[in-house]
Each structure stands twice: as structure tokens, then as C-alpha cells.
Specification:
Layout lengths: L2 H34 L3 H22 L7 E3 L1 H11 L6 E7 L6 E3 L1 H18 L4 E8 L2 E6 L6 H4 L18 H11 L3 E4 L8 E5 L23
Helix pairs in contact: 1-2, 4-6
Length: 226
């Protein structure tokens, strides 16, 4: 490995480590919340996630690709939602269609991405409001009732270290989401037509390699029954 390649590699690992530190801090906050609620199962789940994050970074440093596999989203999402410990002023409304087809994703990365979206929504609403969490074939959507993102900033929200939070925030959460989706061949979109709050849509490939659907109405998931 020549010096230029080594320097690029170290810079990439440094960025990955910054993202890891961001996510570990999120999980430590979640552990404290679970301890306050005396939820030991939640503490164990968040601790396992910390371990998985560290293992993922170590594997990345060795050049090992993420473990991307077929996931049954219904069971995966129910487990993820059960692991959350949201502030009492946050109402989570979930709409998960039954018998969803498998998606192609990295389980550790997907949990990171979803938690970052949920945390981003909580912060945008000052920890008081409604989060709508929806899933349809090959799609997961997170929408909040916050102030939304101004159009002139929307194109930059996925840039590493860019943040709209004055005096707080690392600007890494949404960058982690975008990189996670890129690695599994999917995509993330901030829907510009959302009239209230912010709406993020994750689109996944099927395990057979087919691309995610692109012709669904933007508000399809928000109309699903709870």
C-alpha cells in the first residue's frame, strides 16, 4: 500500500470513527433512559448495539465489507421499535404493512440509520411532538411534526458535519444514514413536498437485486392505518 493510499484509508477510517463516536453517544443516552425506566431488557439491547458498532468499525478498519443480507422487515422493525425509549412527550405512531417482502440491508447499519432518523426527529421537535414510522414493500419512512427543513438547507442535510442545530449536534447522523443506504444499494430521500415537519424515505433493494420502487406517492405511507 503506497503512502497516498494509506493516507486516504486513514482519513476514511477517521471519518468512520467519528460516526461511531456519534452513535455510541446515542446508545449511551438510550442506556441511561432505559435505566431511568428500570428497563433492563432495553439496557441489554442497547449494550449489544454498542458492541456491534465497535465490531463493525474494527471490521471496516481491516477492509471487511458490511454484513449485508436478506432481512424480514416486519419482525426487524417491531424489535427495533420495542428497543426505543422515547421521551414521554413524544408520540410514536407506527404503520407497518403485514407480510412485507425481504429487503437487502446490513442489520447493524440499518439500526444505526433508523435510530439516527428517530433521534433527529426528536431533536427537531425539541423532544415534544409526533413521529410517524411507516413501512411498505421495500420502503421505510420516518416523518415528524417539527418545523421542517428550509428548502435552501435541504440539499445539504446529508453532508458530513453539516448541522442546523445551533451550539449542538455533530452533523453526522444523516450522513451515517446516507452511507448505510449506499452500502446496501438503496437510497434515502428527504421529501421536499412534505407540508408539515420532515419526511425521510428509505428505499431498499430486494435480495434478488431488483431496485426499490420509485413510483409510489410520497404520502402513501402516511395514509396507512396504525
Amino acid at each position: 500500500m503506497n503512502e497516498a493510499t494509506r493516507a486516504d484509508r486513514l482519513q476514511t477510517i477517521g471519518s468512520a470513527a467519528a460516526g461511531l463516536a456519534h452513535d455510541l453517544n446515542n446508545q449511551l443516552t438510550l442506556i441511561v433512559n432505559h435505566l431511568d425506566a428500570q428497563n433492563l431488557d432495553g439496557v441489554r439491547a442497547a449494550t449489544r448495539q454498542c458492541s456491534e458498532l465497535v465490531e463493525a468499525l474494527m471490521a471496516y478498519g481491516k477492509g471487511t465489507p458490511p454484513h449485508i443480507c436478506a432481512i424480514r422487515p416486519g419482525a426487524f422493525l417491531r424489535e427495533f421499535i420495542a428497543s426505543l425509549c422515547l421521551p414521554p412527550e413524544i408520540l410514536l405512531v407506527k404503520s407497518i404493512m403485514p407480510n412485507l417482502p425481504q429487503i437487502w440491508a446490513d442489520p447493524v447499519g440499518l439500526r444505526r440509520a433508523l435510530y439516527n432518523l428517530i433521534l433527529n426527529s426528536c431533536q427537531a421537535m425539541n423532544y415534544q411532538g409526533v413521529i410517524r414510522f411507516s413501512a411498505a414493500p421495500m420502503i421505510i419512512q420516518v416523518r415528524d411534526s417539527g418545523p421542517g427543513i428550509p428548502p435552501d438547507l435541504a440539499r445539504r442535510v446529508f453532508e458530513p458535519f453539516f448541522t442546523t442545530k445551533t451550539g449542538s449536534g455533530t452533523g453526522l447522523g444523516l450522513a451515517v444514514v446516507r452511507e448505510t443506504m449506499r452500502q446496501c444499494g438503496g437510497s434515502v430521500q428527504l421529501d421536499p413536498a412534505c407540508s408539515v415537519g420532515a419526511r425521510f424515505t428509505l428505499r431498499f433493494r430486494r435480495p434478488d437485486g431488483k431496485k426499490p420502487p420509485t413510483d409510489l406517492p410520497a404520502d402513501l405511507l402516511t395514509r396507512l392505518p396504525a
